[in-house]
Structure formats: C-alpha cells, structure tokens
Design a protein that fits this description.
The complex is a heterodimer of chains A (about 100) and B (about 400). Chain A has about 100 residues and is an all-beta fold. Chain A has strands at about 5, 15-20, 25-30, 35, 45-50, 55-60, 65-70, 75-80, 85, 90, 95. In chain A, strands 1-2-5-8 form a four-stranded antiparallel sheet, with no helix packed on it. A three-stranded antiparallel sheet of chain A has the order 6-7-9, with no helix packed on it. In chain B, helix 2 crosses helix 10 (about 285-295) and helix 5 (about 155-170) crosses helix 13 (about 350-365). Chain B has about 400 residues and is an alpha/beta fold. The radius of gyration of chain B is 20 Å and the shape is globular. The relative contact order of chain B is 0.16. The chains are: A mainly beta (about 100), B alpha/beta (about 400). Chains A and B meet through strand 7, strand 9 and strand 10 of A and helix 7, helix 8 and helix 9 of B.
Chain lengths: ~100, ~400
C-alpha cells in the first residue's frame, strides 16, 4: 500500500490501483507530489503513476494490460476513455469501446 | 474428515439425489418433483435442448456419476434427442440407483410427478446406504472461478485462492482453474509453468483458440460490470484471474468432463474446438462451474469483486469477496472477506490460509453461504469438443 487511497502492485507498474475512493478535486500525496483527482476514483480503478504517452503500454502486475490511446498525465484516471486492449475490444452496457 | 464411498473408489463430500430433465419440455415435471421434497439434497439439473449433443451427454454422465451424487431420477418427455438409455446405463454401471420416467409413457404431468415423488423417496433411502469412510484432503478435487470481477479481484481474492491451491497441490489434491478466454494475455507466462514443453505448446494453442473464438463472437469475456469496477481490458482482467492458479507447475490441460487421474494443477480448456457453432463458449459463470463439477470438483472456490451470489447444484460453492465495499453490502452471501487485503488488514497468505481452512470445514459437511441460502443454480448448453492430445496429460510430477 502506498497510502490509504492507492496501492502499487509491482515496482515497474505505471498505474496505481485505488483501494479507498477519492472524489473529483480531492488530492493525495503520490510519488513525492500532490495528485489531484480529475474524476471520481472508486475502489479498483487506476490512475497514472507518471506521464504516459499515446501508444505506450499500460503496465499493471508488472505486465502490459493494453495501450494508451491518448497522452495521459500524472494522476489521471486510466480507463476506457484513454486506453485499449491489445487483444480484443471491451464493451460497456451502452457500447463497445476500444474499436 | 469422512466421505461417501462410491463403487469406483471416489469419495463424495455430499450425498445428493439428482432429478434431471433431458429437455425443457420435462423441466416443469422434474422441478415439481424436486419441490415436493423437503431435503436440500434432492436437487434439480437438466438440459434444455431437443437435439442430441455429445458434449452435453458427456457432461451429464460426469455429473450423474459425480462422487457427491448418490442416485438419479431421469425425467424425459419421450421424443427428445437426448440418449436417455445410455445415460441410465452409465449411472447404473457406476453402482448408483437410477430411475427413468418418460412423461409420454407415464400418463402425463400429474401421474409422472406422483411417480417421481415415489421414486425420489426410494432413491433417498438408497442414498443412505452409502458408507462413510475416512477421506483425506489429498483426495479432494477443487475448482476455481471468478465472476463479477473488478479491479480488486486480482489483488486480494484471486491470489489468496492461488495460495490455497498451492497448499492443496502440495498435498497432491487435484486443483482445476479454467476459462482460457479469461487468460488471454497470460498465455506466455502460463506456458512457462507447464510441466513439459509439449504441454506448454498445447496451453499456448488453447489460448490462441480462445482469442479467435471470442473475436468471432464479437465480445471478449468481459462484462459491463467489470468496467464499472475499474477493469479496462481483457488482458487486465486475465492477469487478475490468472492469480487464482497460484504458483504450482501446471500438470495437465483438460476439457470439460475429463477427470484428472492424479493430483496436480490442471487448466480446463472451456472454449469449443473447430468453427464456432453454438455461440458463446460459456454464457454465464454457472456453465463453467457445471463443467468443473463434471470433471470431478467436490467444491468450487468462487471469487468476486462486484458481488456474485450464485451457488450450484451438486457441489458446494465457497464465495471469496475481494472488494471490501461489496463484502459489507453482501456479507450474507460471502464466505470469506478477502477485502481485508486491500484494506491492509490481512495478507494474501492469511486470507489464503483462511480459505484452506474453510475448504476443510465445508468438505466435512459445514454448509457454505450459498448452500445455506438454497442456491442450486445450473446451466448446461450445446458445445463441441475434440479429445485432448497425449501431451495434455501429466506424465511426471
């Protein structure tokens, strides 16, 4: 556990995973600076541990879990709006994404 | 601990009498027979379709001769394609009592229900004749599945089940993990854990097949709730799911209904072979649970983040909840709170040990939460498989 809101699962990961929710505008100390939440971050969701360039791999558990589809800044929510599978598209109740 | 000794030498941790319908047209009659019984050990399973299918026959045979099963009442309409004679012969040859009622020959709904109630009474009496003999943890077959996964599943519940699996495999028990479609992205690291290079190649091929199959279906094994819970991609979900397998060597690759003959960790390839024919590989979690039970699983470890509530016919389901908020919300349904890991209140090993202890207790007869609540879900549909190759079977330990 990094702090009471986030865990780091592997040293090489570029994401933190939320273990206690933080709402938009709230901040928490990560990597020696203050990360301000750009969205409501609930348990299980990911935020960027550092800046991630479009096309770069998202690393969790020490392995790639997909690629960034946009440039991502430190502390930003990482989810279907800015990353995609390298294998098969995911879908939500409304639509498919990552296609 | 003790188990019910069956004629084939396998031992059961429950003593269930099954009522199985062989086509949807016989469902109501079969259900009415089960509803008239006051015992939770009289359980309903069935197959909906009218067309014959080798896979569903194989699974039904595996279920009806499962160590937890003592006897079976088959309920047929009469004109469906299911080979009821073969099913009955296989059950009889296994040393179990079996009755068949054919509605079209039994005078219809009312008379068949009456005959069924009498038959079940007889089967329950016969079930009591099975001897309880000493049974060891090493004789257990344990399957695992995740359902309603979220971003917490891979942190607490799944690695804790993996730890429990490592302990069971070390004792020479049989452990089964599955759903190659939910292992897309893990194929390389998984193949490296295979006990032989040939098995590693088979594992790689099974995951490639899953990827092609799901691509044809247009959807991965990824539900909207997974995304709401913070999972973004199939491979992210896969990495979390993969943790359930623990760290033992992988001893074999089986297909649904194949029963491992020696202890070890097995991957079940649940994705059909050949061109996609019957739709999604598994329409819902319970279809996978049924397949692991058909392969001999005495009990199932079910991890969840979003909060599944299901159980199963035949074998107890133990629910391990990864998400502390879900646990709080659905605690009546959850056996183990793995949310303690993400809250920093317990380690993965501690929760894994707790799961192991619970496996021992449930194997000794303690009811799991889903059993207490009366959950006996069951799903069996059409599929097509080819047999496994020789390199899929364990050759050495």
């Amino acid at each position: 556990m990094i702090n009471r809101h986030f865990v780091l699962l592997n040293d090489v990961d570029n994401v933190f995973v939320c273990c206690k929710q933080l709402l938009t505008g709230e901040s928490t100390g990560l990597e020696g600076s203050d990360a301000v939440m750009t969205a409501d971050i609930t348990v299980g969701h990911k935020i960027a541990r550092r800046k991630v360039a479009k096309g770069e791999k998202i690393i969790k558990y020490g392995v790639s879990i997909g690629s960034a589809t946009k440039d991502i800044v430190f502390g930003e929510h990482i989810h279907m709006h800015n990353m995609k599978s390298d294998y098969i598209a995911s879908h939500t109740r409304q639509k498919r994404s990552g296609e | 601990m003790k188990g019910y000794l069956r004629a084939d030498g396998r031992k059961g941790i429950r003593n269930v009498v099954l009522v199985t319908y062989l086509v949807e047209c016989a469902h109501h009659v079969a259900r009415s027979i089960v509803n008239k019984s006051i015992s939770d050990d009289v359980q309903l399973i069935g197959f909906p379709g009218c067309y014959p299918n080798e896979y569903s026959l194989k699974i039904m045979e595996g279920l009806c001769t499962h160590p937890n099963v003592a006897g079976v009442l088959i309920v047929s309409l009469g004109c469906e394609g299911f080979n009821r004679e073969q099913l009955s012969n296989v059950i009889e040859a296994s040393g179990r009592s079996v009755d068949t009622l054919v509605i079209q020959k039994s005078g219809g709904t009312k008379k068949t229900i009456e005959a069924g109630i009498a038959s079940v009474e007889k089967l329950v009496s016969a079930a009591e004749q099975f001897e309880l003999v000493p049974m060891d943890m090493s004789e257990l077959v344990v399957g695992t599945i995740c359902g309603g996964s979220d971003g917490t599943s891979g942190i607490g519940a799944n690695p804790a089940v993996g730890h429990c699996f490592d302990k069971l495999v070390a004792l020479d028990a049989i452990c089964i993990f599955e759903e190659t479609g939910e292992l897309i992205g893990c194929e390389q690291i998984m193949a490296e854990r295979a006990i032989t290079p040939e098995l590693g190649e088979e594992i790689m091929k099974s995951v490639e097949k899953a990827e092609q199959y799901y691509t044809r279906m247009g959807y991965g094994s990824f539900a909207p709730g997974n995304a709401e819970g913070g999972l973004t991609t199939q491979e992210e979900k896969s990495m979390g799911a993969y943790a359930k397998s623990g760290s033992s060597k992988i001893h074999g690759l089986i297909k649904p209904g194949d029963i491992p003959s020696q202890g070890g960790l097995y991957l079940m390839d649940v994705v059909p072979d050949g061109d996609p024919m019957f739709g999604f590989p598994n329409i819902v979690d319970n279809a996978e649970i049924v397949e692991m039970i058909a392969s001999g699983s005495h009990l199932i470890l079910f991890t969840t983040g979003r909060g599944s509530v299901v159980g199963s016919a035949i074998s107890p389901v133990i629910k391990v909840c990864a998400n502390p908020e879900t646990y709080e919300n659905l605690s009546d349904d959850m056996d183990v709170n793995a949310g303690k890991v993400i809250n920093g209140e317990a380690t993965v090993q501690q929760v894994g040990d707790e799961i192991y202890e619970l496996v021992a207790k449930v194997a000794q007869g303690q009811l799991s939460k889903s059993e207490e609540l009366g959950h006996q879900e069951f799903v069996l549909t059409y599929k097509k498989f080819e047999g496994i190759g020789p390199s899929c079977l364990p050759t050495a330990r």
